[in-house]
Design a protein that fits this description.
Strand content: 5-15%
Number of helices: 10
Shape: globular
CATH topology of the domain at 78-221 and 251-324: Rossmann fold
CATH class of the domain at 78-221 and 251-324: Alpha Beta
Strand order of the largest sheet: 1-2-4-3-5-6-7-8
Radius of gyration: 21 Å
Low-confidence stretches: none
Number of strands: 8
Mean pLDDT: 90
Distance between the termini: 38 Å
């Protein structure tokens, strides 16, 4: 089975591309007009902030909704890490086809591994290696609009969470998987999907989320109090409205409002770096119920905690799932 397929494009893809193209074209024309006939400096001041809000909102919303990296790591399979595997396809709840790799285990426990934005399922091979070595099966798959999976828009975790539930249903149908020993580990975009899925489905028995970010404006904790956040607040409002327009979803609850529903199943939150990412993970941790753990690795880059100390990471996640599946 080929791991690269031509993905069909929907009207939404072309509509979003047109919005993005018009934005860059408009900025070019404004710059050209200003260069040919310079305006008084107050005009530039009046234009600067509205143009910043509109242009940055469209740029980042388009970038999130239409991830790149489709051909990254296309020649790598679990066999490169010495794993026996099956290529699998399963349908999402909205009937798009998701492509992945299943590595059987020996203890009938299985972990769904979710990559970050712009990645592919096979990028989770590092995390898979430790779990497989300890007897766990793993399912790695390309999230919607990534790799060889169908779909042409990323929904920042909202529909990706339903895809996790479809993956769990696929695993439940396998004779070599104990349906009471299925967990999920996600990074960045995958971390959002992992948390939302676990909040929606109690049969996901344990969840690890590394560097999950906010999904909707409410995840930022309400109205800003600092000057910098006030300056960015219109950008954030515009950005999240655009994301919903571009991906066609309308989430009514964010991660912060739903994370408490995971309890009493165990949860491990991992954060990298310093500043806003660990701050948000701390906020999630405070909002979650017990049992819960948190692990900060300030020297790591976003979604790169594994690579700071692979042995410590492997030990951490294996011990977490071992303990979770005892109960």
């Amino acid at each position: 089975m080929s791991s690269i397929r031509i993905r069909e494009r929907s009207w939404r893809f072309y509509r979003n591309w047109l919005i993005h193209f018009v934005m860059w074209g408009t900025l070019f024309l404004i710059a050209l007009a200003g260069a040919r006939r310079p305006w008084p400096w107050p005009v530039y001041l009046l234009l600067a902030y509205p143009l910043y809000v509109i242009a940055s909102g469209i740029y980042y919303a388009y970038k999130i909704t239409h991830p790149g990296g489709r051909f990254a790591m296309r020649k790598i399979t679990p066999a490169d890490a010495g794993m026996e595997f099956e290529t699998v396809e399963f349908a999402s709840h909205d009937q798009i086809t998701l492509f992945g790799w299943y590595v059987p285990g020996s203890n009938r426990g299985t972990i769904i591994l979710l990559h970050g934005h712009g990645g592919k399922g096979i990028s989770m091979i590092y995390h898979a290696s430790a779990l497989v070595a300890k007897g766990y099966g793993v399912l790695m798959y390309d999230q919607r609009a990534h790799g060889s999976s169908d779909g042409d828009v990323c929904t920042a975790g909202w529909l990706e969470a339903d895809d996790v539930l479809a993956a769990r249903e696929y695993l439940q149908g396998r004779s070599d998987v104990d349906p009471e020993r299925i967990g999920v580990l996600g990074i960045s975009l995958g971390g959002k999907a992992a948390l939302l899925a676990a909040a929606r489905e109690e049969r996901l028995r344990a969840v690890v989320a590394e560097d999950p970010g906010p999904m909707i404006l409410a995840d930022h904790g309400g109205r800003p109090t600092a000057l910098r956040r006030w300056l960015n607040y219109p950008v954030n409002i515009f950005y999240y409205k655009l994301i919903q327009l571009m991906n066609g979803t309308h989430p009514i609850q964010g991660i912060l409002e739903t994370v408490s529903k995971i309890a009493p199943r165990p949860m491990l939150l991992i954060s990298a770096g310093k500043g806003k990412e660990p701050n948000f993970v701390n906020t999630l941790y405070d909002a979650a119920g017990h049992p819960k753990e948190i692990w900060h690795v300030p020297e790591a880059k976003h979604a790169g905690v594994y690579f700071v100390d692979p042995k410590a990471y492997q030990q951490k996640i294996v011990e977490f799932f071992d303990q979770a599946f005892i109960h």
